[in-house]
Design a protein that fits this description.
Strand content: 5-15%
Helix content: 55-70%
Largest sheet: 6 strands, mixed
Shape: elongated
Order of helices and strands: HHHHHHEHEEEEHEHHHHHH
Oligomer: single chain
Structural class: alpha+beta
């Protein structure tokens, strides 16, 4: 009877501090069984009735802890709730001791019980922490696996139940979505944490997301989405943040389930571009910045033939040809302004003129020929030359 009353007091006190602990009948029932059984075990140990080396941890306490982990409670919050419970339990023991003995006996017994309860609560917290982390990891992995399977269905166009998908993902699918893919170039223990920390700063280049979804894919890759108010665009002048030992690629904003899917596919296209062209200086890249490159490189073998046809010797893989290609591309992009190119490359105007003439001669481009195809070939040439021999 006493243990049951103490158990109820513990739930009331901890539940006041953390409402989730009393959020439903099933939660309350599980916690009641846990607190009562734990109180009984502590009473048995403190009174000397327990077997030698008896554990303070009950099966009911372990199950309640696993339930809290599955409900998304943070470990720090759960430990705080246990400490609130410990305070209630200690007070109950003190009241019982005071009611049973003399003042002299009380002081000695209170000291003994206090020291023992601190030892027992430390043992209990250590055990519950291990149980919580284990369940959090197991539950998180199973939930992530289910979410990954579901987003694959969405991306593959085979989603059948929108409401169920939103429930499992805890993410609205009717808004405007921006997809991100993040992966680490050197996986380690904190890979997942580093990649998750990169998602929010990237999303904020488009504004404040109304919701976000992050799904692990293997040990060193994340798929993520953010949903925004309709009509949101990348902020003017916003530069994608760079992250050590991580690549970030971003799709374009799209509306509804189709936008969720299309934005991810755009991010995947940029991912292929980055993985094939590993020499690029920027580790973060948005589809809107390289959409033409993505389109031109959708068939890489055809792109190679295209570059060979329109660049000729200028498409060779050597530093001098790369230098000439860069200057020619700048020259065409900057409206043939010698001054602008010279300033951009920190070279003399005469050097710009010389390089452009050499480049035009090498690719056999004539003055009366449109430059559209030449520009396209220049745009994709360096991507192709950076390609590693092993493709993904």
């Amino acid at each position: 009877m006493w243990a049951a009353e103490v158990g109820e007091d513990i739930i009331a006190t901890a539940g006041h501090e953390l409402p989730l602990l009393g959020g439903s009948v099933s939660v309350a029932d599980g916690l009641y069984r846990a607190t009562t059984s734990t109180t009984l075990r502590m009473l048995a140990i403190v009174s000397g009735c327990a077997e030698p080396k008896a554990s303070v941890v009950s099966a009911e306490a372990e199950e309640a802890t696993r339930d809290m982990a599955r409900r998304g409670l943070k470990l720090g919050e759960y430990i705080r709730a246990i400490r609130f419970g410990h305070a209630v339990l200690t007070s109950a023991f003190f009241d019982a001791i005071s009611a049973a003995g003399t003042a002299a006996q009380d002081a000695s017994e209170l000291r003994r019980v206090t020291l023992l309860l601190f030892t027992l609560i430390d043992e209990f917290i250590d055990a519950m922490t291990a149980v919580f982390i284990d369940e959090q990891s197991t539950w998180g992995a199973s939930k992530s696996a289910a979410q990954l399977e579901l987003v694959k269905k969405i991306v593959g166009g085979t989603l059948t139940d929108l409401n169920e998908a939103e429930r499992l993902l805890s993410y609205p699918l009717n808004g405007s979505h921006l997809a991100i893919i993040a992966w680490s170039v050197s996986p380690g223990e904190r890979t997942a944490h580093r990649l998750r920390a990169a998602i929010e700063p990237v999303l904020r280049c488009w504004g404040t997301p109304q919701a976000s979804l992050v799904v692990p894919v293997g040990s060193n890759t994340l798929w993520a989405w953010g949903t925004f108010a309709s009509g949101e665009h990348r902020k003017a002048g916003a530069v994608l943040p760079e992250f050590d030992e991580a690549h970030i690629v971003v799709g374009q904003i799209g509306a509804g389930v189709d936008g969720f899917r299309r934005s991810h596919l755009e991010a995947r296209a940029v991912e292929r571009l980055v993985r094939h062209g590993s020499g690029r200086p920027h580790a973060s890249m948005a589809h809107q910045d390289v959409d033409l490159d993505v389109l031109l490189l959708s068939d890489r073998e055809a792109a190679r033939q295209f570059v060979a046809r329109y660049l000729g010797p200028l498409g060779a893989d050597d530093p001098r040809m790369a230098e000439l290609r860069t200057t020619l591309r700048h020259y065409l992009d900057m409206d043939r302004s010698l001054a602008k190119v010279a300033a951009a490359e920190h070279i003399a105007r005469n050097t710009v003129t010389y390089r452009v003439q050499q480049a035009v001669t090498l690719c056999a481009h004539t003055a009366d020929t449109p430059t559209v195809k030449l520009r396209a070939a220049l745009a994709v040439a360096d991507w192709l030359l950076e390609s590693p021999t092993v493709t993904r």
